[in-house]
Each structure stands twice: as structure tokens, then as C-alpha cells.
Amino acid sequence: MECQECHKNHAIVHFAQVINGDKTEIHVCQQCAKEKGYVSPDEDAYSLHHLLSGLFNPNSEAMQKLTEQEKEQQEIQCDKCGMTYQEFASIGKFGCASCYQTFSEHLNPLFRKVHSGNTIHEGKVPKRVGSDISQRKKVRELKVKLQQAIADEAFEDAAKIRDQIKGLEKNLNQHGGEGEV
Amino acid sequence: MSSEQFMNEAVSPWLKEDGPDSDIIMSSRIRLARNFEQSPFPLFAEEAILDSILYFMEKEYNHQSFLHYKELEFVRMSELKPMEKQVLVEKHLISPHLADKSNKGAALISKNEQVSIMVNEEDHIRTQLYFPGFQLDKALEEAFLLDDWLEEKIDYAFDETRGYLTSCPTNVGTGLRASVMMHLPALVITRKMNRMIPAINQLGLVVRGIYGEGSEALGNIFQISNQITLGRSEPDIIEDLKGVVEKLIEHERHARNLLMEQSGIELEDRVFRSYGLLKYSRIVESKETAKCLSDVRLGIDLGFIKDISKSILNELVVLTQPAFLQQYAKKMLTPNERDVFRASLIRERFTLEQREEF
Questions:
Q1: Which chain positions lie within coiled-coil regions (chain A) (predicted)?
Q2: Contacts of residue B228 in chain A, CB cutoff 8 Å?
Q3: Shortest CA distance to B101 belongs to which of A93, A8, A109, A159?
Q4: pTM listed for this prediction
Q5: A17 domain-assigned
Q6: Hey, is the C-beta of A128 within 8 angstroms of any chain B C-beta?
Q7: N vs C: which end of chain B shows fewer Cβ within 10 Å?
């Protein structure tokens, strides 16, 4: 049976339509069925990313109430890639790593919404680029331990921890020195 | 090429292996999003910059091996035909975004297809690792090693407070997306799954269909993954996910037992009807295929069907996707023709199964 819409393809969608008691049979090909809306076309991929931009964009009413100062904030622009805050807010994607610095002040509320209230990274630190970072973290942890050891009057442990801290800090200073050259 | 050979090559080798809890968990995946510190993110970078990243990645990593991931092969999207790209998408080796949107995209794929490093996707680097069954810890451990190995030569965009910087705010921090692919037929049959999804969402996890964002749960296969990437360490994220997944496994097993006890014969009937449909039909569309495959796999797990290998669901779900069928047919197919080819491919796969028996 040929498709009654395009008269080209083979009809594969068959159904009966009843409107006010009048029954009409419909025989169409897959393509026409989609085009005429007889079958629902695949819905556009729903994506969290599409929703995201909504999180930054205040509704239009609120927009009108923006103060001059707030409007200025919206015009912050990233030196490195040229992205403005306005653009970022409508696209929902950063342009480059520097954008994180540039828009820094505005990011906490957004991150809180997306990441269940979190704004600060926990977890892996790159070995090479982040070696200083992980060492500084280690120093902070050791200092807490040191205080604890002193409070517990575990002075031998405290001395060991103090030496560890000294070692790490020496390392860090050297690194820092090299980095600035 | 014989259809046997085609099917063998079409299915990723790791997908045929058995893993822990593989009666319910088909695969575990870890994805890490990373960027080069100095270059704008791919969506906003000039082509010349993206070209230089491609050049660098090819020079440094093409044909390299790491751990048991041998011979990473660098594949440029611009050198693939649309159908070849689609096949990689259907095998989950690249994302639809990489296939469609980034003509400066590439992927480094290991020979066993367990590792795929996408280049110039939404982020410069997206490392993905697959394991059969429920092996999130192992996958994370090896993903970290791979990440360290890449980092030896790449300055990652990283910030002490924000962590790994990514194009999308939803990935910042760890850049980690951990996910498991679960076959949950009994929870669907007993209508429990729909009620569980909102609860899972509340725990900061996302439930999707087999082909990611926006796809429906074909064949009762659900992908569960973490949503939060900032403020939780990678092992904590994995623990949260594991906790929920273990509960789901428990519920699924319970529902299977209940079904067996209360409606064993109806279930057996359902399984064998689907088996018959797959084995004898001449036209079968993808949704029906997925439903029947799910029933057959459940039948295998419950012991109704004994002469078919378990990996048949994993394999045929991939093999019966549109691009695979077209590759099998060696030509473009209309949707109708696809349904015919699909039926014939499935019949051949079942025939193969019986030959192995003897």
C-alpha cells in the first residue's frame, strides 16, 4: 500500500481516526507520519546544560531593578579570551581557565546551586603543577597535628612533626624562588 | 567479512568479559575532564589553537601504551565518515558532541577499547575508562594513573580553590563523572523504578537511559551517575554512588525473587515470547528489540534459558543500533530496511550461539 500523503513510499503506519463518530483510516509512511505529527518525533535531547543558563539569568523584572553598579558588574570581561560575564551567563560555559578568576566574585552562588552548596575543591591535585599546592595542604595538616601533639604533651612526636614541617616549608620556599625567576 | 567476524569486531573486547555483579551491572565508567592551562576551552578557541592541541596529542600519545592499555590510536574526527563516527558513539567510545560538533576533535582509543581519551570535546581532554561489571574503585584507581601519566606532559588548568577548571560549571572541581550501566528489568516490571528515580535524584545522582543525556531507558538499562563534582573528593563521590547502586542491586534481586515466587509462569512466558520474537521475526524495530533482549537476558539470569551466553544483551544492544546495522549492511538504510536488517542480524547472532554449543 502506498503512502496516502507523499504517494512515494510504502505506508507502514496504519491507524483509524475517529472524529465525532466519523472513522477515517490513515495509511502513511514513516517519514510522513513524523512530519504530520501522527507519531511523536524524538524529543529534543533534554540537557541539564540548557537549564543552566537559567540559573544565572535573573528574570526580566529583576533585571529592570538592577542598579548602575550591578550593571557594571555584568560587563566584566575576561582579559584572556574576551568573554563578558553577560555572555557567560547566557551561554553557561566558561571561555578559558582565566574566566574563573575574572568572574570569581559571582561564582559562589552558582556553584552552590549546582554542587549542593559546595564552592571549594576537595580531592585530586595534579602532581606536577600542583605539587606546591599539595605540599601546602600537607603543611596545614601537619600544623594541626603539631598543636594536638603539644596539647597531648607528646613532645617527641611534636619534634618529629616540627621537622617534617620545616622540611616541607624549605622545599616550598625554594620552589617559590625558582618560580618567580 | 562474515557476519561472525563482523560481530566479533563490532563488540568491544572488554564488554564480553564478566565482572562483579554482572547479572545486574553491565559496566562501570569513570570520566575525567581536563584542560590545558594556557588555551581557551574548545568551544571558544580559534581553530589554530585546537589544531596545535591535536598535533601535540598525536605526537605525544599516538601508538603509546600505558598499563595494559596497549596501542592508543589517535583518530581524527575530520578523517572519519559520519557513519564511522556514529559507530564510535554507539560503542560509547566518543560522545555525540565530539562526533557532530567538533570538527577539530579526536580520540585516543586503546586497542581493547577500554580507554578513550577525547580531545577537543567540550573540554580539551576527557579521559574515559570502562570496566565490565561493578568495578568503580578499580576504574578510578586506573583513571588516576592515566591522568598522572597524561599530566607528565600537560600543564592542566587547575586552581587551588576551584580544582580542575572545566568549560561547564557542572564539571568543575574533580571533573569526575562516575557512572554504572544497570539492567533493572524486575524493578521496571514491578513499577518500582519510576518511584525510585526521584529519590535517587535527591541524593545528588542522575538517572539516564543507555545513550546518556536525554535518552530513554531502552531495554530497562539505566545509567546512574554523580551530579556533584565540586567539594567532594573522588573517593567520596564514588562511595556515594556505590552506596546507592548497591541498594538498587539489592532491590532488583529482591524484585526478581518476588516475581519468580508470585508469577513464575507469567514471567517464564514473557521471557520465551521475547526469545521467540527475536529468534523468528523478520522485521523488528529498535524499541521492541531492546525490550525483548532485556526479557531474554532476565531469562538467562533466572535460569529459564540455558543455552545462550550472558553477554548477548550487552552485545546486541550495541549491534542493533542504526549505524552498526548500516555498517553491517554496508550501505545506508531507510528505517524500514533497518528493521529488516536488525531482525536478520539478531537471528544470525542466535544461530552462532547454537553452533558454539556443539
A1: 151-178
A2: 114-116, 118
A3: A93
A4: 0.78
A5: yes
A6: yes
A7: C
